[in-house]
């Protein structure tokens, strides 16, 4: 090699200290991957190398390089690397079980993330910290076995985590499954709840795979996770956060979605239609990435939306669109795309990722936590139609603690949906109620924006977490001491 030639890249890399590297691991569910992606970008923008992984071929919608070769040059500037989580000796890479989330949770074990950690080290990207979502308990076990610090990203509310923690550790008395939905729940530091408000997995069958994964997560948190990062913000759940800090090192880092992006994700035609509507006039309807309404429910929603006389934007996933073709004539006519001279009518689309930021009037939602935090951060009142998981608890939180919504009774009827929308959109004498909800929603929008802004409560929590990862050689005890509540809330 002449004096004019640059040394090989490998030689240069060997002469530099390894870049702190965070490995993000998720179960293959869209609602779990989305907040982890946002967290990853925020960590990467602060100087960390970040790799995100989940099982392949799971129907997830995000741009990635299946071979993990992308974004190395942009790491530390908000870019992410992607590598698929493989079953190692258990499954072949094209095994059809990868396409079924239950099978992935049931059969992927510590071997897959452990092998991924070894591969990163072999490639010169020594893993400094593993952050895993809930429902992937094998990831934090593998990190502990490799002596790598671990953190959990809890993608539901801190209230729900506090309920699960008290239930699975027998720290409070809970009503039995047959006590009835109105039986009171008495957990310290939480607002009044009833048995009907509890997250569904508390009383799910013990052999249900998702309950088993949750049980493993909750019971091992103190041993496997140095930190629990929660997709919430201090101003939203201060009391629950403080109560949980008696047991775990909790850092509120949310809301975790891309507030700076307003892309609709449904094409120019949808964008133009939405922008043509009057401010605060559109009813936005979306039931998440998993909830599947029955055909009867879809028909009631369609006619109920049309009966409000308001323009609406309804997100219907590809796996639900065949049911639209089989709706009764009145329901099919109700959802015909159009506008009319006064902008009435509706649009049915496959995706509308940032629609809450445009022409917001109200949000008809299943009450998943991602949708809950996005509605609060957008300042949009909600109509909540719950189905399972944490949704009943979130609905009680939105309606009771936050005062920004109404619940749509189950099963949905067109009349009940119309009344709920009108209570928010100031029709038929509900002016005072609707105005108060809208004012409270705007207050939550201001608080959420302040939390993620520079110096806000969530921004400080992410800054301190990154500081711990960057501090080479800090032991687990000193890292935990860095995150005492008084430091986080300075």
Automatic annotation (TrEMBL):
Keyword field: Transferase
Q: Does the keyword Transmembrane apply?
A: no
Q: Could you tell me the superkingdom of the organism this chain comes from?
A: Eukaryota
State the Gene Ontology terms under molecular function: transferase activity
Family affiliation: Belongs to the UDP-glycosyltransferase family.
- The molecule here is called Glycosyltransferase
């Amino acid at each position: 090699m002449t004096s004019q030639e640059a040394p090989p890249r490998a030689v240069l890399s060997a002469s530099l200290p390894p870049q702190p590297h965070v490995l993000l691991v998720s179960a293959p569910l869209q609602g779990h991957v989305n907040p982890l992606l946002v967290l990853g970008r925020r960590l990467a923008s602060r100087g960390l190398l970040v790799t995100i992984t989940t099982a392949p071929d799971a129907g997830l919608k995000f741009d990635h390089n299946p071979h993990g070769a992308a974004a190395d040059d942009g790491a530390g500037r908000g870019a992410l690397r992607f590598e698929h989580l493989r079953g190692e000796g258990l499954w072949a890479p094209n095994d059809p079980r990868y396409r079924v989330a239950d099978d992935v949770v049931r059969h992927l074990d510590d071997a897959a993330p452990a092998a991924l950690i070894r591969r990163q080290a072999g490639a010169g990207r020594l893993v400094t910290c593993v952050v895993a979502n809930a429902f992937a308990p094998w990831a934090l076990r593998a990190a502990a076995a490799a002596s790598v610090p671990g953190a959990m990203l809890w993608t539901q509310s801190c209230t729900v985590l506090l309920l699960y923690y008290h239930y699975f550790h027998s720290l409070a008395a809970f009503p039995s499954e047959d006590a009835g939905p109105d039986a009171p729940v008495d957990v310290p530091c939480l607002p009044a709840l009833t048995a009907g408000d509890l997250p569904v997995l508390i009383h799910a069958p013990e052999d249900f795979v998702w309950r088993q994964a949750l049980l493993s997560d909750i019971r091992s948190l103190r041993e496997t996770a140095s930190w629990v990062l929660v997709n919430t913000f201090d101003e939203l759940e201060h009391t629950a956060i403080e109560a949980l800090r008696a047991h775990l090192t909790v850092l509120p880092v949310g809301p975790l979605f891309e507030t700076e992006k307003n892309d609709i994700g449904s094409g120019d035609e949808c964008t133009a239609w939405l922008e043509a509507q009057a401010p605060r006039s559109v009813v936005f309807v979306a039931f998440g990435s998993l909830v599947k309404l029955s055909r009867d429910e879809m028909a009631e929603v369609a006619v109920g939306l049309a009966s409000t006389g308001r323009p609406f934007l309804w997100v219907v996933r590809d796996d639900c669109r065949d049911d639209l073709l089989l709706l009764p004539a009145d329901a099919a006519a109700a959802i015909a795309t159009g506008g009319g001279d006064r902008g009435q009518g509706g649009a049915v689309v496959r995706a509308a990722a940032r629609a809450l930021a445009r022409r917001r009037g109200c949000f008809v939602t299943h009450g998943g936590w991602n949708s809950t935090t996005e509605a609060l951060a957008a300042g949009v009142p909600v109509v909540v139609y719950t189905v399972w998981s944490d949704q009943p608890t979130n609905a009680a939180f939105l309606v009771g603690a936050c005062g920004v919504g109404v619940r749509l009774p189950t099963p949905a009827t067109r009349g009940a949906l119309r009344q709920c929308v009108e209570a928010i959109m100031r029709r038929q004498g509900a002016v005072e109620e609707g105005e108060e909800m809208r004012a409270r929603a705007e207050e939550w929008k201001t608080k959420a924006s302040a939390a993620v802004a520079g110096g806000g409560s969530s921004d400080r929590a992410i800054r301190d977490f990154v500081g711990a990862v960057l501090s080479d050689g800090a032991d687990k005890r000193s890292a935990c001491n860095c995150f005492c509540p008084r430091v986080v809330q300075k």
